[in-house]
Amino acid sequence: MNYTDFFTGELDRLRDDGNYRVFADLQRKRGSFPQALNRDGDQKRDVTIWCSNDYLGMGQHENVLGAMHEAIDTVGAGAGGTRNISGTTHQHVVLEQELADLHGKEAALLFTSGYVSNWAALGTLAARIPDCLVLSDALNHASMIEGIRHSRAECQRFRHNDVEHLEELLKAQPLDRPKLIAFESVYSMDGDIGPIEEICDLADKYNAMTYLDEVHAVGLYGPRGGGIAEERGLMDRLTVIEGTLGKAFGVMGGYIAASTALCDFIRSFASGFIFTTALPPAVAAGAAASVRHLKDSSFERAQHKQRVAQVRARLDAVGIPHTDNDSHIIPVMVGDPVKCKYLSDILLKDHGIYIQPINYPTVPKGTERLRITPSPVHSQADIDNLVGALELLWSQCELARIPMAAQ
Ligand SMILES: *Cc1c(COP(=O)(O)O)cnc(C)c1O
Question: Any idea where the Aminotransferase class I/classII large domain is (predicted)?
Answer without folding.
Answer: 46-390
